[in-house]
Every structure is written in structure tokens, then in C-alpha cells.
Amino acid sequence: MTDTAPRPTLEAVAARAGVSRATVSRVVNGGDGVRDILVERVRKAVEELGYVPNQAARSLVTRRHDAIAVVVAEPETRVFADPFFAHQLRGISKELTAHDNQLVLLLTEGRDDHARVGRYLAGGHVDGALVFSLHLDDPLPELIQRAGVPTVFGGRPGWSGDRRGVVYVDSDNRGGARDAVRHLAGLGRTRIAHITGALDQTSAVDRLDGYRDVMVDADPRLIAEADFTPAGGERAMRELLDRCPDVDAVFAASDLTASGALRVLREAGRRVPDDVALIGFDDMLPVAEQTDPPLTTVRQDIEEMGRLMARLLLRGLDRGTPREGVGGTPSSVVLPTTLVRRASA
After folding, report:
1. Is 97 helix (H, G, I), strand (E, B) or coil?
2. Is the dihedral of CA 158, 90, 85, 258 positive or negative?
3. Strand 128-132 vs strand 151-154: parallel, antiparallel, or unpaired?
4. Where does residue 102 rank: exposed (0-12), middle (13-18), buried (19+ CB within 10 A)?
């Protein structure tokens, strides 16, 4: 056991700065009405003494916890295996850190976890929530609404019920899908297949709709359902080769799905892109640049989506109106996508 030095107190900071305790309290808790010269003296004393404000006491003054819940509606095995989530969490973390806010990560494995998350949000532990990877039957939107927590969602809402005032950040999934399929058609490919994502998520539905926008009269057998995973891509690609052995191009709903499809094509002796051209979606560099051949894909700025979600929420909290948009601009934002051409198509 070693002795530890007592934590510096407000009184100690006040004595070092030569001001009253009340003045120190106003400065460290973000209050107004303190002259600049005194603010500077207090901040210098805080730094010299290593004073750390008591968060509970500060919350009583500011009514803020400086903590944001990040709710990912997926089990931890999926979250920590899929680089998409790492990119989005990195963007969120950077923005929250820049504003001295803590990230509280909440994952959902099943219905019991949904109830736990709902109770936590309703308990007043955080100032707001960032929620993404929702599924159509997910109870989280209703639980969050009951909790009354300011929230920004990642992805276009797809649940039923009142969605007025819902703020979200998404990518142009449908437009990006159209660009991908048009590119394949422009290469002279006529049997263009689509491997979907999980169709209980709006991003997958939008990408399927984008495919259908271009392939208006496509053979229904050229559409195979998957789930945004490599294993799902493998299963779907095998189905496609069984049903439509003359397939000459594939648009996959994610880079991970495309990587699984690529393995099956190689096993089947199909050359990419000579025999079958292949395009993914996301442009996650650890995946898209390391496949053989490197993957042509639709780029969405996943990290920027995370940053923007956090930025919208924090600005709304600062204004006291988190659901009314920022600076007169629309509440929700849809980011553009870009086709990135590599060797697979």
C-alpha cells in the first residue's frame, strides 16, 4: 500500500488564484460573469494543482453530464469483427473528444439488452444518444422516445410510427448503387447480379432499389439475399452460380460481402474481372485494397458520418433544441457517395 496525496479542492485552487471559492466554481463549471483576468488566474491555478472538477457537482450546475451514449444495435461479435463499426466509432470518438465528452458504448445482443439500454438512457446518465445499425423490428426507437433522450440516428429511419423530429445521418445508398450498376452495364455486362445486405435494414433496401432502378427488367434469379458479412457473400454467390451460371457481373451490398463472393468465384474458376466483374460498397480500405484483385467499390465516408452524427447532437444540446436542426439547415443529412474504380470491374 502506498499513500496517495489528497485531491486538490476548490478552496485550494481559490487560495492559489487569490479569488473566492464561488469564482473558481463559476470558472470550472462554465459559468458567466467572471472577468478575463480572473478566469486566466483560475485556469493557471487549476493546471498547477492538477485540480479535476467533481462531475456530480458540475452536473448540478450545468445540468450536463458531458457523456454521450453510442448505441449499436448489433452483438459484440459483429461490432468488433466488422471494420465498418470501427470507422464509424472512430469518427464519433474524435468529435466527442474534441468537445471533452465521454463515449459510453452500449451493444445489444437480444431483447433483454434492449430493455437494459432503455433503462440506462431513461436513468439520466447521459446527455444524448447516437444510435445506428437499427433493424426494422428493433424496439430501440420506441424505448428511446420514452426515455426522452435527445438522439441522432445513423441511417434513414425505417420503423413505423411517428418519425417527426427524427434526426439522422445517412449516405446516398440508392444513388451509389445506381452508379455501380451503370458502371457494370457500361462495361458491356448483361447478366448483372446483386447480392443484398440484410433487408431488415434501410441501407440494404435502398441499395437493392438502386440496382432495380437500372436493371428494370432483371431476372429475379439474379438477386440473392445476404447480410453484409463475408459468409453471407459466399452463400449468396454459390446460389447465384447454381441458378445463373452465365452471370457476368455482381454488385455486392458491402465490401465484406464482395470479399466472400470473390472467394467463391475464385474457387469456381471464374476470373475477376475477365469472366465476372465485381463491385462492392463502402470502400473500407482494409478490405477493398487487400482483395485480389483490389475491389472497385462505392465509397461512403463512414468516419465522417460518425463525426457528423456527434456534431449534430452536440450542437443541438448546446442550443437546447437538439431536434430542430443546426444553423437553419435541415435536421437530417444525406452524404454523397463516389464510385472508386480499381481492378475488379
Report:
1. helix
2. positive
3. parallel
4. middle
- Return d(Cα 334, Cα 171) in angstroms, integer: 5
Q: How many CA atoms lie within 13 A of 23 on its CB side?
A: 21
Q: How is 278-342 classified by DSSP, letter by letter?
A: EEEEE--HHHHTTSSSPPEEEE--HHHHHHHHHHHHHHHHHHT-TTS-STTS-SSEEE--EEE--
Tell me the β-bridge partners of 252: 195
CA 277, CA 283: separation in Å to the nearest integer? 16
Q: What are phi and psi of 307, to 5 degrees?
A: -60, -45
Q: Which amino acid is at 38?
A: L
Residue 151, phi-psi category: left (phi > 0), alpha (psi -120 to 50), beta (remainder): beta
Cα(260)–Cα(243) distance, integer angstroms:
18
Phi, psi angles (nearest 5°) of residue 335: -85, 145
Contact (Cβ atoms closer than 8 angstroms) between residue 169 and residue 335: yes
pLDDT digit string (tens) for 119-177? Answer: 888 888 888 999 988 888 888 888 888 888 899 999 988 876 666 678 899 999 999 99
Region for residue 7 given its phi and psi (left: phi exceeds 0; alpha: psi -120 to 50; beta: otherwise): beta
pLDDT-wise least confident of 63-67, 215-219, 295-299, 325-329? 325-329
Q: Which candidate, 262, 279, 250, places its Cα nearest to that of 337? A: 279
Rounded-to-10 torsion of CA 224, 227, 232, 233: 60
Distances (CA, A) of 262 to 58, 59, 297, 311: 54, 53, 13, 37
